[in-house]
């Protein structure tokens, strides 16, 4: 295929060849980066390429200017991807692992810079999202991250300080609020209402109501809004101060301020009671929450259970666990709480929470639990206790294996060995690769390495080739071959299992003499598939032909090397080919005689390939010897052929040029004119179509029925009914057998109906007796237009629909059936509209005009009829989709409270696509208030993407030019601890700059049309030859 491609390239013009070359280059650019070893090998063995001096100079200059920059851009791109993964994981599960954070911090250190949003995300990850670490370690990590942000010059604004405050609160880190404010002032960062809210919460965590009151008075003096979060903090503060009644009084104050207590309020009360072990207080709070219909999600109750366990009140855990509804997201909530309990040393409580989870669908239930036990350093006895219990319950048959894996990866050698012994006692299979980390852990301790091998053999595991060659021998002093072999044989290993990997190790160390001596001292069958590639690599560096050829001869005497028939592999030919990568003529002159002397043979195919490539540089005696050692026939391969792609049909411009050419030569132009008439009618070029038709008449060309049909369709598209009727008449006169296709017929019928002629429209349908084998997709739009026009005129909609369906012109759809419901809604006949809706929903499982019908029922307060629509919609679309639609209808009709109750339905989780559609609809219709309400009532919806919703809100404020409401929404994002995306920040920054308002954060680079940060053009050389040269030389770096 490569040869065929080369041949075709000569037939292409210069421009085509350059485009083709560019496509191949950019396909390489778009491919994933390869391993570094690939580029090292490519650079080492690549042939020389001729490049003009001028191009080489340009490349050198380009590399000097953009080499470092391109590498930096690639690192920045990798960091963006890593942070995106972390953010997505937090959105999905509510947690992040320490390993992921450490990897990101390592990338940050390598890059040496950090943007504001990236720094904000890193700070946020040091709090409650880091479930597997205890609060003290999280606080220490937060300090490290903050210092790194400052050292890298990351732009810090109020959102960063607020995020740090939130991390301090989540970790209950001890700090001085006044000192924190002084630090912000020294950094010239102005605190906002979120800052003061979190400082109030800090005082309340300490039970210092007086300190919280001072901050509260300051907020009032600054006219800063006092919202629900402040009251929730005061509830917790009074509880921690030991004044439970005052905490309950806060709820009355909230109601007086027109704020209803929410799940967060009752959460604060429950936590205060749980810390003191106040069972009566817990029961009272739960009763009150039920009375006011405040839905308490599972994650709230699980957090209260965590507080009870950490406070030592294990007897009350069941009180919370029994109230779990186990709704959507319960599994992830349980995992999060279990990890937190294990981090705080509460493994028994964590196990009880684990057992409360739903029955598993597989036999690996609780893998996260057993893994975290090992990471937190639980004793072997406790780990075995939980693993055996999980096995006995049938929850996790591989719990012990998972623990051993985590212990090995975490370099806990003693624990891992104990777990492996337990696995052996239980009859679980042990693999050689389990012992790789154990050998690595004994680096510099030969006795320890031998101890691992001894333990391996005692457990009945046969050491693998890789274990010895890549792990054991590199950790031993193998200068004395006999000593190593004898010691390993004393541990139960056979000579063959020792010598083969030992020979490979010697060859990898480029000591072919030692390898040969080992084989001669301990004659065993070598494995050519492992030895030959290493032998070739060793020869390319040592150039020792005599021992190399002798060792190759010994390797080929084994069972694998002497196989016959079709299964035989030409190992000697592969060896010789590998050796010829560098200085082939010199190596051939040395190696070929040595191979002959040791009676080593290669295939005829290899010999012919060597002769074809290097024969001109070899002497006659060497060629003769090459023929002597070649024995097999050459396999022939046929090369395929390919064809050039065919050309497309002419377009309008090409046809017009062709028409001019025909006219200049006096040739027949009717065919080109007919084709032009067809294209101009298709693309609705009215004037040009009429001009072409006039030319055809002047040339005496007779119009066919198809040509009149095209003109009919053209006039229908511009609404000229009279001319359309005229061409319909001419169609029948010119060719009575001609039948209009469905598109043209339905469009003409729709035009007739819209002009007050419904009976004429129906007559057109009845006169056409065409029946399709299957519906055509494009006919639906025309059918909808026809039915809509008939409905508006009060025409025979049902008769028209029956004709369309009986002739299989269309298939039933919601949009197609909607005009039948609209016909009743236009007359305010809701019972008839509902009956029609129900009829077609039952018949076709469709919900035509559901939006219009539902909103009309909401506006008129017809709850029973609305419930009927909801029930039908649930049968067709499912409960979740129906509930989101219903909430949107209530918002549009001004009933926010009802919409909120709908979205608080237990078990409901976010449907991102549906929410996006609702927000787009509000945005398109400039319904900013409804959009604000939707953002507010979805705050506690499971799995909701808050950043996406706030982006819609900022787009709405941008359209209305409302900077104050945008800044207020920005503060709300901080209150909710929402990570803003780059796109959200760009929209907000653009709005504030346009209105000459200060931007409360550091703006990022401008985004391109896809919403990504624009990359500098300097990374891409302007010259295609320069690009090619940089790629061939292996020096190009792409981001």
Automatic annotation (TrEMBL):
<feature type="repeat" description="PPR">
    <location>
        <begin position="227"/>
        <end position="261"/>
    </location>
</feature>
<keyword id="KW-0677">Repeat</keyword>
<dbReference type="Pfam" id="PF17177">
    <property type="entry name" value="PPR_long"/>
</dbReference>
<feature type="domain" description="PROP1-like PPR">
    <location>
        <begin position="178"/>
        <end position="267"/>
    </location>
</feature>
<dbReference type="GO" id="GO:0005634">
    <property type="term" value="C:nucleus"/>
</dbReference>
<dbReference type="InterPro" id="IPR033490">
    <property type="entry name" value="LRP130"/>
</dbReference>
<dbReference type="InterPro" id="IPR002885">
    <property type="entry name" value="PPR_rpt"/>
</dbReference>
<feature type="repeat" description="PPR">
    <location>
        <begin position="192"/>
        <end position="226"/>
    </location>
</feature>
<dbReference type="InterPro" id="IPR033443">
    <property type="entry name" value="PROP1-like_PPR_dom"/>
</dbReference>
<dbReference type="InterPro" id="IPR011990">
    <property type="entry name" value="TPR-like_helical_dom_sf"/>
</dbReference>
<dbReference type="GO" id="GO:0070129">
    <property type="term" value="P:regulation of mitochondrial translation"/>
</dbReference>
<dbReference type="GO" id="GO:0003730">
    <property type="term" value="F:mRNA 3'-UTR binding"/>
</dbReference>
<protein>
    <submittedName>
        <fullName>Putative bicoid mrna stability factor</fullName>
    </submittedName>
</protein>
<dbReference type="GO" id="GO:0005739">
    <property type="term" value="C:mitochondrion"/>
</dbReference>
